[in-house]
Amino acid sequence: xxxxxxxxxxxxxxxxxxxxxxxxxxxxxxxxxxxxxxxxxxxxxxxxxxxxxxxxxxxxxxxxxxxxxxxxxxxxxxxxxxxxxxxxxxxxxxxxxxxxxxxxxxxxxxxxxxxxxx
Length: 118
Description:
- The protein is mostly beta strands.
- It has strands at about 5, 10, 20-25, 35-40, 45-50, 60, 70-75, 80-85, 90-100, 105-110, 110-115.
């Protein structure tokens, strides 16, 4: 059983920064690639970032490129997303998820809400 729990969301002013965290359970965390995705109010899911199982390969959506960094700590079984220069359009529920190897996720958490507003 895999459980993913996101945290670190909150209210931040435009231009501000936040670090999201994702705590994973289970013994297989280090063997899986992981995703960060988000869902803005009234919109569909948007892929933000993906990281390889050893953290050596990362990729980002154009919407967040140069404004976020994904990393992981396989010893602590933690996934992180450091976001900066946040904009109102970054307001969304943010989820971490496990890559199922088919360009999708087979497990994800309940999300953490990020609100960017003055």
